[in-house]
Amino acid sequence: MIIYCQTGTRASNSYIVLRELAFAKVRVYDASWNEWGSNLSLPVDDVSYFNFVSVLNALEILQSELKDIEEIQATGAK
Per-domain residue ranges for the chain? Predict the structure, then answer.
């Protein structure tokens, strides 16, 4: 049994529970959907794709811009 989630974090909880329930052949795909779903050449049923990298990059830009605005406001500059 191979367990996965978005990044492998939640799957580790399921791994522990299944092992406690005496399932012997349990593995966590630690790269999980984050890796598999980002590679469009890999097989997937009922495909829907979300580009997390572009969202994270956009968030970094917004955080940087917010930091710049806060610094301008703190110095009283216009």
Answer: 1-47, 48-78
